[in-house]
Amino acid sequence: VLRKKIAVLPGDGIGPEVCDEAIKVLEAVADRFGHQFEFETHLMGACAIDATGEPLPDKTLQGCFEADAILLGAIGDPKYDNNPAAKVRPEQGLLKLRKSLGLFANIRPVTAYDVLLEHSPLKNERVAGADMLIYRELTGGIYFGDKGRTEDGEGAYDHCTYDRSEIVRITHLAFQAATTRRNKLTLVDKANVLETSRLWREVVKEIAPEYPDVELDFLFVDNAAMQIILNPKQFDVILTENMFGDILSDEASVIAGSLGLLPSASVGNTVALFEPIHGSFPQGAGKKIANPIATILSAAMMLEHFGLQEEADLVKKAVHNALDKKVLTPELNATSPYTTEQVGNFIAYFVMHGIEVMPD
Ligand code: IPM
Ligand code: MN
User: What are the GO MF terms of this UniProt record (predicted)?
Assistant: First the structure.
């Protein structure tokens, strides 16, 4: 029996709806395997600003520190998007959470599901079989460097900095991941222009001999952006800095056919965080159309992180079954769409009983 305390940060928009379904699936896992998962919900994002004035209240951070893992829905609200200069923003909560918890590696698997190929905007034969894992550095680089305005207010700057230790720790994780997959690692950088990228290359090359089975190559980020679309199958594990990873992982997500399918894990030295890569989709909130699968697969990554491989595999199997049987929300099933809750129930029931019951 495993006991785990899970902090849940549902956030904004569709965040609470998709978290509910992931919790349902985790509860089914707990029932089936005799584990005990305790869930504690906290405020973060625009909802936290509305309630407390702060995007990441101390109480939330405290709850995260005390948990064994964090499940996050999504944050963001249009009232801030239209006003990028707002002093207090939901995104600050997420960035502070990453930094405070030391979540230095963001891991995003991108898989092309055969049954969904028709939904990919890319040619099917290009996408079929694509399966890559992106390791994005998450607590350094331009996101966290000095930023500001020049004295006269006419200029602005965002400094990009990295030090060796920040590169070393994620590089080991990425190499280790490659050894469990197809033994290929691609460092994406801009070493023809940026000094930070030259440091990344230097450090990654130094570490490479420790992983003799892994084939290492390098791509400039502009070329990588093109290669991900032209020939996604060439990639196994991609390692890259914070901002390049932000951009490339959204780009890579089109390969899967829907943003609503892609999970992520953010890991570091302490508690790890699991969240779908999609945003808060405010237009969809309350309409029961949000796809819960990305969050459910994020919960599966959490189970893997707990060392519960059998449980994680069962959740993934249940998700594949939902894809096969087209028990899917409208963006992936326009003819007979199911609600967020129906998709969650279908997956949770399969996890619990090993068989399916089609929703009415
Ligand atoms: C992401 C998001 C965040 C980021 C935003 C919300 C700050 O786009 O998790 O990829 O840029 O890291
Ligand atoms: Mn992003």
Answer: 3-isopropylmalate dehydrogenase activity; magnesium ion binding; NAD binding
- The enclosing H or E element of 213 equals none
Tell me: do 17 and 71 sit in the same domain: yes
Whether 250 is a known active-site residue: answer: yes
Which candidate in 246, 316, 325, 326 is catalytic?
A: 246
Amino acid residing at 181: R
Phi/psi at 91 (5° precision): -60, -30
Number of domains comprising the chain:
2
Q: What is the four-CA torsion angle of 89, 91, 94, 96, rounded to 10 degrees?
A: -60
Catalytic residue among 80, 113, 135, 143: 143
| Claim to verify: residue 210 and residue 344 sit in the same structural domain | no
C-alpha of residue 274 to centroid of ligand 1, in Å: 13
Say what the pTM is.
0.95
Complex ipTM more than 0.95, yes or no: yes
Instruction: Extract the annotated binding site for substrate.
Output: 98, 108, 136, 222
Domain finish residue from 194, 229, 260: 260
Q: What is the CATH number of the domain that holds 304?
A: 3.40.718.10
Among residues 31, 50, 114, 222, which one is catalytic?
222
> What gap in Å lies between CA 13 and CA 30, rounded to an integer?
27
Residues with CB under 6 A from ligand 1: 91, 94-95, 246
Looking at ligand 1, which residue's alpha carbon is closest to its atom 5? 91
Taking only the tens place, the pLDDT of each residue in 304-322 is: 999 999 999 999 999 999 9
The residue segments making up the domain with residue 146 are 107-260
Q: What is the pLDDT of residues 44-102, one digit of tens each?
A: 999 999 999 999 999 999 999 999 999 999 999 999 887 878 889 999 999 999 999 99
Q: How many other C-beta atoms are found inside a 10 Å radius of the C-beta of residue 31?
A: 13
